[in-house]
Amino acid sequence: MTLLELTDVTAFYGPVQVLDGVSLSVPEAGAVGILGANGAGKTTTLRAISGAIRAGGSIRFDGRDIRGMRPDQVAGIGIAHVPEGRGTLGDLTVRENLRVGAYTRKDRKGIAADIDYCLELFPQLEERIRSNASALSGGEQQMLAVARAFMARPRLLLLDEASLGLAPSTAKNVYASIQRLRVESGISMLVVEQNANLAFTLVDSATVLETGRSVLTGPTAELKGMDAIRRAYLGG
Questions:
Q1: With left for phi above 0 and alpha for psi between -120 and 50, is residue 12 left, alpha or beta?
Q2: pTM (2 decimals)?
Q3: Number of structural domains in the chain
Q4: Per-residue pLDDT tens for 99-158?
Q5: How many Cα atoms sit within 13 Å of 180 on the Cβ side?
Q6: Are 124 and 173 in contact (CB under 8 A)?
Q7: How distant is the alpha carbon of residue 22 from its chain centre?
Q8: Domain range for residue 90?
Q9: How many angstroms separate the CA atoms of 236 and 230, rounded?
C-alpha cells in the first residue's frame, strides 16, 4: 500500500522556482531515499510535504490531499519532520524534549514506555537524560531529534541529512539505530542524505533529483549497480 505519493510537485522561494516536477512514493512501512547534488531540491521536497512552504502539484498521504495544510496539521495526521540542523530545544533537558515530542498524546503509560524505548535505542541519551539539549554533542543532538520525532508516534518520518556534521563512526551508529527503529516500529521513512552509502544502509529504493525534478527512481540494489550513480554519489 502506498502511504505517501507526490505527483509533479512544484515549489517556490519567492520568485525562484526550486521544484519543477517531483514525483515519488513511499509505501507503508517502507523507506525511500532522495539523492541529488546541493541545490537539487531535496530539503525543499521535505518542506513541501510538511507544509513549511507553498507547493503545487499533488501531495497525498494515506489517500488524502494534504497540500496546503499547515505544519501543525501535517504533524497531526502522522507525519514527523526531523529537519536539517536537528532543531532540538536547547533550554530543555533530554527528558523534557522527549515529552514535548509526545505533547499531542494522552496515553501516559505509552509515553513512559516510549521514553524508555528511546533511551534503550540511544543509550547516550540515557546518560545525558538531565542535561540540556544545548550541552549535547552533535551526534547526541541528532539522536534526540530522531527520538523526539518518534515520540509523536508518526506513521511517516521525514529525515533530513541525519549525518550532517557527524564523524563517520557516529553517523554510522546513528543510522544503525534508525534502522532498528524502522524495523521494530514499522514506521515509514523518507530520507534525504548527502552520504548515499549511508542512506543505502537504510532505504529500500531512492529517487534522484536534478534541478528540482525527479529523473530516476529505482531499488537500492539497482541504483548501486549503475555506473553514473556510483560515480556521482557512491565515490566509485
A1: beta
A2: 0.94
A3: 1
A4: 999 998 889 999 999 999 999 999 999 999 999 999 999 999 999 999 999 999 999 999
A5: 13
A6: no
A7: 17
A8: 2-233
A9: 5
CATH number of the domain within which 62 lies: 3.40.50.300
Mean pLDDT of the chain: 94
- Residue identified by cell 504533524 is 75
Task: Give tens-digit pLDDT for 82-112.
Answer: 998 767 888 899 999 999 999 988 899 999 9
- Give the residue carrying C-alpha cell 521544484: 19
